[in-house]
Write a structure and sequence with these properties.
The complex is a heterodimer of chains A (about 190) and B (about 90).
Chain A lengths: L11 H31 L1 H8 L4 H25 L4 H31 L8 H32 L9 H26 L2
Chain B lengths: L2 H23 L6 H21 L7 H25 L3
Helix pairs in contact in B: 1-2
The chains are: A mainly alpha (about 190), B mainly alpha (about 90).
Amino acid sequence: MTTHDPHKGAPVEARLGIWAFLATELLLFGGLFTAYLVFRLEYPELFHREHLRLSRVLGTLNTVLLLTSSLTMATGIAAIRHGRQRTLQIALALTLALAAGFLGIKYVEWSEDFSHGLFPSSNLFFGLYFVMTGLHGLHVILGMTVMVWLLWRARRGDFSAEYNTPVEVTGLYWHFVDLVWIYLFPLLYLIG
Amino acid sequence: MTAYKRYLAVWAALIVMTAVTVGVSYLDLGLWNASVALVVASFKALLVALYFMHLRHEIKLVLAFAIFPLLILGLIIAGTLSDTMYR
């Protein structure tokens, strides 16, 4: 069994549709990454000094949570391609739990930042940090909302080896959210 | 290798690379810190795209849909920097 059997996966129109949407998402985040690059090159000392205020431990923990949620999502899709509905339900529930854990840690981090008087208006670094992690967090919330709907439909038995397009398309979106974090994490927490 | 095992192997590689990049961030390598972090991040992104997002087995048209926006982003970044860096 290969990872992608075109006859069992989503139809090509659906895949093109989600990839076209992900293109707009890439350019949405891309504008912020460009701004980050411009200001980091202009104020390297500020970025270095301010990035040390972030918790590398919590950032790493969140990276692990999100990478693992991509694993459970991919596993769920592989399962439903074999018609394993129960495995899909467990995989979706686990993905949701990991995403909730990610948001929980993000909440703790932001609360710490606020209590230390760090706000989006504090300086350029924290302005970008709050906007980029905030926009990313909104994407996590949107992904979770869709996954709750998927889980509800999965429990109703809507998905099978023959029909699982919504699961695969949501999976592609979710992995994209993971991809954005893969770059946000080093840029904000590790090298500022 | 079943799909599950392959995904597990990809996940393990992603976690190892995360550990490496965090470890390296505690060393002072000057300019190399940023390079190492971005190269590792790009390897992680490639793994996610190829395996979790199934691009390894995708048809050419979908691959083009995935790669083209990256070129556009490259143009945006190059165009912006060519202005801001030479003011």
